[in-house]
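My current task is to audit a protein record that another person submitted. I need someone to confirm that the token line plausibly describes how this chain folds. Take the sequence as given and treat only the tokens as open to question. This is what I was given:
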Amino acid sequence: MSHIVHVEANNPPGKRCTLYIRYAEKIGQHLGMPFSANFHSPHPVQGRISPALLVGGVALVPQNGDVLLPGDVRAALPDAPTELLETLTEVHRVTMTG
């Protein structure tokens, strides 16, 4: 398994892509994992869904079917520190209301 936090995002990134990039940065910081991103045209490409956030090669799935919430990240990373959930909650609030 890859020990990296990775994001697939549109270029230019919209709100969800920006949110996932910020999540990835914070997850990487809290878990000591490097962060990478792949930016591409916002037009659909076969086999590619944007945005996507992968931790250790595993895609995190939004339970609401639309956008990852901090609870989705917590469910996917149950051993992550509580501070990470608090940080992601603030990132979500700032990004999605800004």
Q: What stands out?
A: Residues 5-97 form a domain with the Glutaredoxin fold (CATH 3.40.30). The CA atoms of residues 62 and 69 lie 7 Å apart. The mean pLDDT is 89. DSSP finds three helices and four strands in the chain.
